[in-house]
Design goal:
Helices cover about 30% and strands about 20% of the residues. By secondary structure, it is an alpha/beta fold. A hairpin with a 4-residue loop joins strand 7 and strand 8.
């Protein structure tokens, strides 16, 4: 009798894609070996609680800045006559200001810091920093676009913040050699021929744009707040975080520094997935109602700039993403697959990994000793 053909569903998180692409071993240790992803700490070795930090946790501050963007970004609702219509979710007109004390005060209050802060408190410094960063965004490409300017050949018709999405990437195996076969796994007369990788989440921001010819497009934009806290220098940007080297008035979305290029590369698979989700949504519409999906971009809080993948880099990111998802599917369904190797000696990626940190080093760059840290310290 013919084999039973099966489909397998596997869930994933968009924000983990780039990390597991840069180190497939991390994914394998977590999802295949089942290792906990908290750094291993020995009992009774907790570090003494330190004095309150001058700045909030980066993740908390990131959430605060995301919220400022969500409630404070102007939505122009200036729709072109020739562009495909957008549904009601795009049509909530808002002329709010990003860099306004009302917007920032509301966010501070939502996070439990009150509508007003004592001028000498650390929370007042957080509020002021949110205001400065919002002002940078207002000065940059995005801020000018939502004010109605036509820049780089595009005009923003409308914006959506925190756009929910669900995306299923359907994977089928193509054999490149005869020995490979076209199934992910076979057992007891059944074979898995298709794997559905399911992702859901929220895109920070999606822009609806119109070009000079009246053609409509959509673009995913993801906010990153790297370099916005301790390293940031408000008064002398040149002495601050490297991202501050480029001024928001530079509206060319091509990265203008190594730092901009690096942060964009580090998030390209996440951006590609969001964009593929949009492409799938558009593909279901009649041709006349479809908008093309532009290469995605990051919005950098530290300098207010938008930096965008080139068309070629976008296509490459989609290709790399599909290859990575195929690999994920294979390791889930084939327990005998060879384990991914450790990263090369000196790999910086490892320094942030929970399997490297803690009292027990469970993984690390090739050649580095693994085991209890205190025993390594005792060695001559």
């Amino acid at each position: 009798s013919p084999p039973l053909l099966l489909e397998e569903n596997i869930k994933g998180a968009a924000h983990h894609l780039d990390a597991t692409y840069s180190c497939s071993r991390k994914y394998w240790l977590e999802h295949i070996k089942g290792w906990p992803t908290e750094p291993f700490r020995l009992p009774n070795t907790a570090v003494e609680p330190s004095a309150p930090s001058a700045w909030p946790e980066p993740t908390t501050f990131g959430l605060m800045m995301h919220r400022v963007l969500e409630i404070g970004l102007r939505n122009p609702c200036q729709f072109g006559d020739t562009t495909p219509a957008l549904d009601a979710s795009w049509q909530h007109e808002s002329d709010a200001d990003l860099a306004s004390s009302d917007t920032i005060g509301r966010v501070m209050n939502e996070f439990g810091y009150g509508l007003e802060q004592d001028a000498t408190s650390r929370e007042a410094a957080w509020r002021d920093r949110l205001m400065v960063l919002s002002s940078l965004v207002d000065q940059g490409l995005l801020g000018r676009w939502v004010q109605g300017e036509v820049l780089n050949g595009w005009k923003v018709e409308a914006v959506r913040t925190e756009l929910p999405f669900y995306h299923r990437e359907v994977l089928t195996k193509r054999a490149t050699t005869e020995a490979e076969g076209t199934v992910y796994a076979q057992s007891n007369g059944a074979s898995v021929q298709q794997v559905n990788m399911d992702f859901n989440g929220r895109a920070d921001l999606v822009l609806a744009l119109m070009d000079d010819d009246g053609q409509g497009a959509l673009q995913v934009v993801d906010l990153k707040t790297r370099g916005c806290l301790g390293a940031f220098n408000r008064d002398e940007p040149a002495k601050g975080h490297p991202l501050q080297a480029v001024h928001p008035s530079e509206i060319d979305p091509v990265p203008q520094s190594d730092e901009e290029a690096n942060i964009l590369y580090e998030h390209r698979l996440q951006l590609a997935l969001y964009s593929m989700a949009l492409e799938a949504i558009e593909a279901k519409k009649p041709a006349a109602e479809q908008r093309r999906i532009l290469p995605p971009a990051l919005l950098l809080g530290a300098n207010g700039r938008m930096v965008q993948l080139s068309q070629g880099a976008f296509e490459q990111a989609k290709e790399d993403l599909r290859a990575h998802l195929n690999w994920r599917a294979s390791v889930h369904l084939n327990p005998n697959m060879e384990e991914p190797p450790r990263l090369p000696s000196g790999a910086e990626t490892c320094r942030q990994c929970p399997f490297y940190r803690g009292d027990l080093r469970r993984c690390g760059p090739e050649g580095e000793p693994l085991g209890f840290i205190h025993q390594m310290d005792d060695e001559p």
